[in-house]
Design goal:
Layout: H1 6-19, H2 24-31, H3 35-42, H4 50-60, H5 64-67, H6 75-87, H7 91-104
Length: 105
């Protein structure tokens, strides 16, 4: 198994932070860290721990899988994502999606 791409993870955090107009200082304060550590995570100078990643994601209002989205390589991860999206759909929408899938195969 190949390791996680911490450079990409840091970029995903930075991109989301900037999209929301948040500073590294704000993230650090809210996540209980410090600015240099957030900077080091975003610039791939340290590997983010799971505890810190969850804290950052909570501040950003995103799930960990959003930040790690390109780290999943298993087909099963895509299946789970599709099922998650379908779970909130009406029966009518689910039927339409099923028809679309059948047409595409």
């Amino acid at each position: 198994m190949q390791g996680l791409d911490f450079r990409r993870i840091g970029e995903n955090i930075r991109t989301r932070r900037i999209q929301q107009g948040l500073t590294q200082e704000y993230i650090a304060t809210q996540a209980g860290g410090n600015v240099p550590h957030i900077s080091n995570i975003e610039n791939d100078r340290v590997k983010v721990s799971l505890t810190v990643l969850v804290a950052i994601c909570n501040v950003l209002g995103v799930t960990v899988d959003h930040i790690l989205e390109r780290e999943y390589t298993a087909k099963d991860a895509m299946d789970q994502e599709i099922l998650k999206e379908l779970s909130s759909c009406t029966p009518e929408v689910k039927e339409k999606v099923l028809r679309i899938i059948q047409i595409l195969r």
